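Bug #77: duplicate submission created two jobs. Keeping one. Sequence:
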Amino acid sequence: MSKLVLGLITGLIFGVLLQKGRVTKYPVIVGQFLLRDFTVMKTMLTAIVVGGVGVYTLRAFGLATLHVKPAQLAAVTAGGLIFGVGMVVLGYCPGTGIAAAAEGKIDAMIGVAGMFVGAIVYAALYGFFSNTILTWYDLGPVTLPQLAHLPAAVILAALAIGAALFFRQLGRWEKRSFKR
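Kept job's structure:
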């Protein structure tokens, strides 16, 4: 099976799971920002833990390799701020925005168009960025286990335990909040 077909199938499955998990719904995204609905946070933390365990397991069996991008801290910070503002204004992140656009939501379609415009602007200004912000606080291609000088399994175990404890505490908080 070609990589393009596999990517298409994976993308379709991802979109269906986002839709079924309700993270393509505007009220769910806004609820996260208002600290009333933690569906998005739960979904993301679960995806990070499962994805990390999956990638490092595949790597251990020689079925995957890591292609680590440089940790460009200034660029990531600036991009994160732009991403966050866009997410608050639109009410979707890129993945959920595309899934919502596929559901026929006009606001999401406008947001997806904005993503394309943003990508075009970034591509047009890449020469400038590559000589400025992309070089500031660039740690190179490094992973968290490398930075911490710990095995990936230790980082992943700590992340999984931390997520489980966080989910437990979040569940308690949600029960107290909804009883009022």
